[in-house]
Design goal:
about 210 residues, Immunoglobulin-like, 14-stranded mixed beta sheet, single chain, mainly beta
């Protein structure tokens, strides 16, 4: 059985883009996001799933969550999406948590991608020249059901160490949700503070 800080990224067959209702997601490993500070269950739940397809040369992420209101006004790539509702994944594809990829997607499929580097003093530096041209996202909100899904498709070529059986990445997955209750910060691996940028808390994505 995988440890709490580990997820398995299975090799599964998939032709084209696997929408949230595609049966392949039933075979993918998944986890529940928790409150980023306490590790407790949030008021609105979120599931995060992942698999890869060597035939397509792509890795796929899926967020599925309860949502009673959308707050998202950004419309341009690389705007500060984290100020409103957003899904995020941080990836240290070379397993050096001092250097990692920050990926974000809004409920309106607006994207943010950048490279984070941490210096010896712990200061973060953001490189916005990083751009994944073949990154595809499909986010759908069903207001009548208070439910949102976000599927991400990323090419292997975006990463310095692509997915391969026997290898692993250090990652964490997040969600920011705004409602009348306030701001909810969720994570796969809690950081212990109201801050996603705690790379030592990253979990392990094992390619099997």
């Amino acid at each position: 059985m995988a440890k709490k800080n580990q997820m398995q990224c299975r090799q599964l067959e998939c032709d084209g883009f696997p929408r949230a209702d595609h049966p392949v997601w039933k075979e993918a490993d998944s986890c529940s996001l928790v409150d980023v500070v306490t590790g407790e269950k949030p008021f609105l739940g979120t599931q995060f799933s992942v698999f890869r397809c060597d035939k397509e040369q792509r890795i796929f992420f899926l967020f599925q969550g309860e949502d009673d209101r959308i707050q998202s006004s950004f419309r341009w790539r690389d705007e500060p999406l984290y100020r409103e509702d957003v899904f995020e994944v941080f990836i240290a594809d070379n397993n050096n948590v001092s250097h990692y990829i920050e990926l974000e997607a809004s409920p309106h499929n607006v994207l943010f991608d950048g490279l984070i580097s941490c210096d010896e003093d712990g200061n973060r530096h953001l490189d916005m020249s990083f751009d994944i041209k073949e990154w595809r996202v499909e986010t759908r909100y069903v207001e009548k059901k208070n439910y949102i899904t976000s599927v991400w498709s990323l090419p292997y070529t975006a990463f310095s160490i692509p997915p391969e059986a026997g290898k692993s990445w250090r990652i964490n997955a997040f969600r920011i949700d705004h409602s009348e209750r306030g701001e909810s910060l969720q994570a796969w691996q809690k950081t212990g503070e109201a801050n996603f940028h705690v790379p030592d808390a990253f979990g392990y994505l094992e390619f099997v």
